[in-house]
Model the fold of this input.
Amino acid sequence: MGAKISIPVRRIDAKEKAGGWAKYIGDYEFDNLQHGRFLRSERARAKIIEIKKPVFPEGYYYVDASDIPSSGKNNIQMIKDDWRVFAVDEVRYIGETIAIILGPDKQKVLDLLNEIEIIYEDLIPAFTFDDALACKGGAVHGTDNIFAEYLLNVGNTDNAFKNADKIIEGKYETGFQEHLYMETQGLVGTWEDGKITMYASAQCPFYIRKSVAGTLGVPLGDIRVRQVTTGGAFGGKEHFPDVIATPLAVAVNKIKKPISMIYDRIEDISFTCKRHPSKITIKTGLDKDNNIIAMEIDTLVNGGAYESSTPIVLQRAILHGLGVYNIPNARILGRAVATNTFPSDAYRGFGAPQGLFAIEMHMSHIADELGLDTSDFKRKHFIKTNDITITNSKMHDDVKLEEMFAKIDEMSDYSSKVKKYANDPVKGIGIAFVNHGGGFTGNGEQVVIQGVVKMKRLDDGKAGLYVSVVEMGQGLQTTMRKIAAGELGLSIEDVVYDNPDTDIVPDSGPTCASRSIMVVGFLVQECAKKLKAKWEEGVGTEATHQYVHPEEFVWEQETLQGDAYPAYGWGINVVEVEYDPVTFEVKTEGVWAVWDVGVAIDETIMQGQSSGGIIQALGYASIEKCELKNGAFMQHTMADYTIPTSLDFPKVETVFIDNPYKYGPSGAKGAGELVFDAAPPAYAEAVQNAIGKRIYDIPVTPEMIMEALNK
Amino acid sequence: MVDSYRPKDLKEALSIRAEHGAMPLAGGTDLMVRYQSWTGTLPLFKNSIMFIGHLKEMKYIKKEAKDKTSTLVIGGTATLTSVANHPETPVVLKEAVLSIAAPALRNNATLTGNICNASPAGDSICALYALDAVIVIEKTGSRREVPITEFITGPGRTVLAESELVTAIKVPLKASSVNNFTKVGTRKANALSKLSFTGVADYKNGRVDSIALTFGAVGPTVVRSVELEKKLKGLSGSEIETKISAILEDYSTVIVPIDDQRSSAVYRKKVALNLLEKYLRELSRHE
Done:
């Protein structure tokens, strides 16, 4: 950790957030504000026969698909536009939007909502992977319930399996995960100067603009989206705000008054997207020297009732399917299925955690089967610079996993503990190795996003920074300023970076995919250089910079061939546990992490990312159970959907190694999702070693441990 | 129409109860959650409410000695924090109270509220069953005392009449040398119970003189079997040790939990019996 930019500064938003005067969406005041609440489907799959409504008093409205202007469409323009703004005639999942009830008095709105009666004719819903593949009740999507299907292939897998000395198989499953950002979903839509303006707690202001304009059938410029201070997102505010914004815009367009749609917590847990559940089968062929010569992976993810970003999540799951290993012959089939569950969507890691959990556990199980040490077996198969990848290109990164392993071994005493706990009845230690591609998959930055940033010299020697990526707790208000200020020779306080407003900032793309620092930060650095060169032209001087795809990274989207990502973050986690044979509860005794994120833009902020990502992932791996009962999430309160508290896990010991990336600002690579990826398999392996039984699924609950021990 | 009342003293509180049957609200930590509605609207109380958390007459914890027995009397508005901090609070009750939620909630919540909420997963209730707590119930002009086992009649149900108020909880302070309260929660803090266990016992002349074993969240109310406890009385430690599997078998017939969003019936039963076994082993070593 030697880079100057890594030296921590006090976060620019520390005072206002710790002091409690930061304004979130619920804190804004609007004249004549109306309050909206969704009328939602109570059935997972049904025909709507009739909606019986009371007489609405003056000033109260029932807004549904019939209020969409004729120029518009009852579709939400996300990556796909299959998700309907309002359900019409039939419903596909519990919680689907049917209408908005709104008016000035919240209690009256609730009363009206309670008086509405919907007559359904139930259809047979599909909830599980098996239901989906069997098209139970008829296909939810298309003719086969398959949202997307991809096949990746390297080498000659069939031949290699023929030569295999032994074949080992395993099936791995992961569940739903709720984001549980501290601030629930919320937007306020207003009618200002003949134009719809959305104030949003959101990650991607331009996504909202696109979806709202599409629904209303108006030019993009007719919609203004202003991000307001956002209390956490984790992917949950990437696409999902569109699901609120589009019906809200229809309502604002109808009544021309400001309307707020802010979720309560139970509403938020019950009726927002979750991480995609996965079911991954891996078959591995080994030669007589225990080298992996072939691997076949079958990946299923549950997309729920609408497609949204599911195909891209699936792509990331399979592109990370081989983990950090060099497998010369491999085939990965990926399928995303449709069911009548709440649509799944983005969540920190975006498919990679599911793929990486499966491969890491599988590698561990192979080692166990062969009587080998996990880390030795995994290290023997590490991918190295210039090795062939699953997409038939070369690994361009300078892979420093061995150096990182030496570091974490020293920090955690891993190797000696593995031996020490081998026969311990209650203690165990686990390790996991991961990488995570930064930025959009393939050439998405070049073809889809084409991000632009702008800077300007302001009065008093200040510089304005205009980007569409947002602060959502990850520290971007500070790190972006550091990058810009560093180039311009200013203090970070002299860089003005307001919450993005689509009428002011250029579209530098969404805040997701670990791209904000690596991709947009680099644009900012380049733009700052341009502005510096013409700084002397005076106040008002502007510079812009647009993304240029580095020529050495080639990608063909149709076939998913080439360089899936320009650079990867790399990481190793070690988790040490002790289980209680009386209650089957697990106590985590230690958590260690070593990361290669290129260069940390701020050491303290990155420590926060590491601790936060790991604890969130440990929750996913242990206590965050989210089950369906007839299509509804059973754990829908904060009392029942439990995320870790500071008493559940110890302090995370984190170290970063420097490995600068040529096209990242000061060498930085993507980091925000990487830090989630390694903890689940490291934890599951630690528990597995403690209890002496293999773990295939997460969350590893005490109930599951009891069952495993009974087998 | 839902009214709210704020009596100036206990006497007025009792007369409001008699006249309006208004639901008492002390800390509000259960009721405000149970009746929560859309943020910015009033809670959905079905009946009138009477705020009693401020009533000083019931905000006390005192030790009463009579003949040879002493009792801890916990006033109707004493907070969980004050119960946990009192030097005379039996250790199992203290641990049960400290396992509830987090400090901020315990500063507001009352022990009486926890009992009147009558949740099968109520952590303090499990301990109070084992301690033979007695509930003091008053109404204008009269007063009665009911053992906690009779006070709670089902999930969320008690014998408290509309005109009555719980004004205190009496906890007999008995000799108890082997004490255990264990809560198995959904996480390590701020958690609801998957199940809980309380064991209190005392030996006299090498024989079990008193014993109480209770299980929370494994049935519609806290499970306690006085008949099975009787079988343990008079046994020596080594006799207990030889009977452990028979005792567990007995208890496996009275512990009949269910599956819900927090845990499974199989797990609850298995862990309840494991905790009992652990306790019995400890007990057998003590005599």
